[in-house]
Amino acid sequence: MTPKTETLTVNLPVELVAQVRGAVEHGEYRSDNEAISDALLDWSARRGSEAEDTGRLRQAWREATEVDAPYVPMEEVFGRLKARYKAMIVPAAEK
């Protein structure tokens, strides 16, 4: 089933028009319309993905801020991580 379509007139920079027409001339697309539709579908999918990522980040932030845990300064956390991973590397290098 073919989706409903609507005509939309847009002004594009000359460089983009050249890229679209080049893609059509090289056989990547059958028409300018198909090339632009494909680009817009990618854009739409990326926006949806970004919205999902933003939602996950907001949820993680809510969960993190609702926890009643003591505050640990970032420098201390990174110091602990560096020490832990350094301790893991030294024994491996001695083998």
Q: What does this protein structure show overall?
A:
By secondary structure, the protein is mainly α. The protein has one domain (14-94). It is built from 3 helices and no strands. The protein has helices at residues 14-25, 32-66, 74-94. The radius of gyration is 26 Å and the shape is elongated. The termini are far apart. The model has no long low-confidence stretch (mean pLDDT 91).
Termini separation: 64 Å
Strand content: under 5%
Give a quick account of the main beta sheet: strands, pairing sense, barrel closure. none
Query: How many alpha or pi helices?
Result: 3
Overall structural domain count: 1
On the 0-100 scale, what is the average pLDDT?
91
GO biological process, one term: regulation of DNA-templated transcription
What are the SSEs and their pairings?
Blueprint: H1 14-25, H2 32-66, H3 74-94
List keywords for this structure.
95 residues, 72% helix, mainly alpha, elongated
Summarize the structure.
It contains three helices and no strands. The protein is mainly alpha-helical. It has one domain (14-94).
